[in-house]
Amino acid sequence: MSAAAVPLVEMRDVSLSFGGVHAVDRASIDLYAGEVVALVGHNGAGKSTLIKILSGAYPRDAGSIRIRGAEAAISNPRDAKHYGIETIYQTLALADNIDTAANLFLGRELRSKWGTLDDIAMESEARKVMGRLNPHFERFKDPVKALSGGQRQSVAIARAILFNAQILVMDEPTAALGPQETMQVADLVCQLKAEGIGIFLISHDIHDVFDLADRIYVMKNGRIVGTARTADVSKDEVLAMIILGTCPPAAIPGPGAVAGKADEWQ
Hints:
The chain is of the alpha/beta class.
């Protein structure tokens, strides 16, 4: 990427407290077009809270958010959608008893000039967007509860990008999936990157992180420990960042890094 490229997302010195607990403390992260950035850390590290601030679920106490270089006012999920931000939660939030097209347009249904549901138009649009993501997908008429985990993930992603989202948040996208379905999700992520979509990936699976992400941010106790390109660090080094808060030489330390530990990496 060009050094002069403008990030899709810049979050600077973002903080949020619940009572006296600093859930997020002066966190700064960024994301570029066509990039996957993983956010990792123990449960309670603050990664989900930070992303929920971006998606409008939580209002921040301090800090700034810029989208494509411009200050963004995000105080609720509707604001986030206005800026092209969509979140795909681990549960996928699909309606199991209806088909793919109905899930894609759930709450935003297309209607005919008579005011009835335009099922033909919705299925046509569903086929277009699924054709981009998963050309082999054919089960448009089946209720989504009958689909495999990988196919369900395809439907959730298709719903997110149907309305031109450019920033995706993926929460544990391969949780409970088998190896073949995990490969399907990896293919979907590669397709999204090729289209210039930026992805924040939240995952506890270090193997997924190294398979899918271009860069990694590590959080601990609500603060950014550091960031690095996945190509420049090992899994053991990232685990040390998560557990100990230490940064290897290839990582850029954040305010949450443990001081006085640099000599351990010499």
